[in-house]
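debug: dumping io for the single-chain case to check the tokenizer round-trip. Nothing else runs in this session.
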Amino acid sequence: MIRWWPALIFLVFHSAYAEDRLGRLFFTPAERISLDRLRQNSRPQIGNAQVGSAATEAGELASAPLTVVSVQGYVTRGGGKGTVWVNRRPLHETLPADTGVDRVRVTDGRVHLKLHGAGKEVSLKAGQSYDPVTGKVAEHPYIPEAGEWAAAELEALERP
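debug: decoded output
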């Protein structure tokens, strides 16, 4: 009989706390609602400028020359929408930006980019870059406007 007392005490105290669920950590219900509204209603910031109308973006893209396109990474949220980092800029999958890319989508761990001007769709993994002039995909990341540290890193990657 004495052996059952610890188990009985454990069950009594455990059942008192069993109904508390963790749910989403670190956010109150009001904060979660606010975050969900921001995700659904706001247009993303790219650099320091707010994304403008589609006509303005199309005009800017038409004047942009074809450059090397690099994918640094991507994140997909539970709702299916995600963010892809192209040429060090965050892009939402449904919105074009001034990176030379018309459309972005992620499937099976690959980022599919429709390049502006070339009309070609390229499939890259995170960390790869594509040069539209040569048509080659490079395994090392090309990071435009990154500075000297990136050049040194790329040199180290290219050495055998």
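debug: round-trip ok. Residues 4-17 form the longest helix (14 residues).
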